[in-house]
Amino acid sequence: MSESTETLESKLSEAVDQRDAVLVRQLIDGAEFVLLTLPDEEDDEEGANVFSTDLDGMELLVAFTNEQTAGDFVNSMEDLFEEGEEIEGYVLDGDALLQYMPPEYGLLLNPESDESLVIDLDLIDLIQKADS
Predict the structure, then answer these.
(1) At what angle do helices 8-17 and 21-29 cross, to 10 degrees?
(2) Which of 8, 45, 77, 99 is 20 to 30 A from residue 24's alpha carbon, by CA?
(3) pLDDT in tens, 57-114
(4) Are 105 and 99 in contact, with CB atoms under 8 Å apart?
C-alpha cells in the first residue's frame, strides 16, 4: 500500500540511484513532462529553443514532472528571463521525450525544487535502449 503513496519523483530518484534503466524507462513512459521553450533570437523564423543547461560540463535538457513545478521554476528565475520575454511550455509524453532527446544530453528534472534529479548521459543511453 505504501507504493501507491510514492510520487513519480521519488520512484524515479530511487530507480536512478540504482541505475535501473528498465524501471526508469517504465516510469518515464508512463508519465508526461513539461518542457519550456524560449524564442530563438538568432532565427527570424518561428522557432524556439527547448530550455537546457550545463551542469559541471554536462549538457542537460530541462524538463518538469508537472505544470506547477514548471511555473514555480519560471517564477523563481525571474532574473534569468528578460521582462516581457515569452516563455512557453508544452506537455510531452515520456516516450516522446526519450525519442526526441538531443544527442549527447542528459536530463535535468525539476530544477530548483526539492525533487530535482539529474539523469546523466550514460544512463539516458541505457534508458533509450531499454524495453519498457
Answers:
(1) 160
(2) 77
(3) 999 999 999 999 998 998 887 776 666 667 788 999 999 999 989 999 999 999 999 9
(4) no
Query: In terms of Cα–Cα distance, which of 49, 83, 88, 54 is closest to 70?
Result: 88
Grid cell 521582462 is found at: 83
What is the pLDDT of the chain when averaged over all its residues? 87
C-alpha cell at 10: 521519488
Sorted by where each begins, the domain ranges of the chain are 2-129
Pick the CATH number of 2-129 from 3.40.190, 3.30.1360, 3.40.1350, 3.40.50: 3.40.1350
Strand partners, 7: none
Which residues, listed in sequence order, are joined to residue 58 by a DSSP beta bridge?
55
17-69 confidence digits (pLDDT tens): 999 999 999 999 999 999 998 766 555 455 558 889 999 999 999 999 999 99
H-type alpha helices, 1-132: 2-5, 8-17, 21-29, 67-76, 94-99, 121-129
Collapse the DSSP code of 65 into the 3-class scheme (helix H, G, I; strand E, B; otherwise coil) and give the result: coil
* pLDDT score of 59: 96
